Amino acid sequence: MGKGYATRRPVPSAGARHPFETYLAVNRVEELTPGLYRYLPLTHQLLFLEASDQLLDPLAKANLGQRFVGQSAVVFIWSCIPYRAEWRYMAHAHKNMLIDVGHICQNLYLAAEALGTGTCAIGAYDQGAMDTILDLDGTDEYVVYLAPVGKI
């Protein structure tokens, strides 16, 4: 069975495939430089990708004019790497991935509530624009869901 290790994460995933990556567009978070980050689940760290204090307009535009997305303290953006599930579940992979991303976002809702902040799951966005913000190819990895978080 593989190399004898498994990842433990706070969300379920069909077959423990975890086909998602979590990115953060940080605007106003204490002790973090505004910009883009990727969450590294195996080491529970944030990987700094790019500094930017100009995320408001690109995020609002990519989210069909929803300005609150760019104005939030942080936006959690989930991308999908479908191959992680497709090789094992073939035709059923995409159904499982949709269920999995719901579990992930629900955990964010629970965490936001516990911290006294708010969030709003978003599926209405311009696919190409969101993929471009994260420098994703749109085929092997692409944005599937996002949720801004901030004070209510």
Describe this protein with a few key phrases.
5 helices; NADH Oxidase; globular; 6-stranded antiparallel beta sheet; alpha+beta; 152 residues
- The largest beta-sheet arranges its strands as 3-2-1-4-6-5
Strand-pairing-aware structural class: alpha+beta
* Percent of residues in helices: 25-40%
| CATH fold label | NADH Oxidase
Which parts are unreliable, with pLDDT below 50 for 5 consecutive residues or more? none
* Average pLDDT reading: 86
Q: How many structurally independent domains?
A: 1
Number of strands: 6
User: What's the CATH first level?
Assistant: Alpha Beta
Counting H and I runs of at least 4 residues, what is the number of helices? 5
* Amino-to-carboxy terminus distance: 47 Å
The profile of the biggest β sheet is: 6 strands, antiparallel
Radius of gyration: 15 Å
Strand content: 25-35%
State the shape. globular
* Secondary-structure element string: EEEHHEHHEHE
Q: In the CATH hierarchy, what is the architecture at level 2?
A: 3-Layer(aba) Sandwich
User: What is the fourth-level CATH superfamily?
Assistant: NADH Oxidase
Q: How would you describe what is shown here?
A:
The protein has a six-stranded antiparallel beta sheet with strand order 3-2-1-4-6-5, with helices on both faces. Helices cover 32% and strands 25% of the residues. The radius of gyration is 15 Å and the shape is globular. It has one domain (18-150): NADH Oxidase. With 152 residues, the protein is α+β, with helices and mostly antiparallel strands.
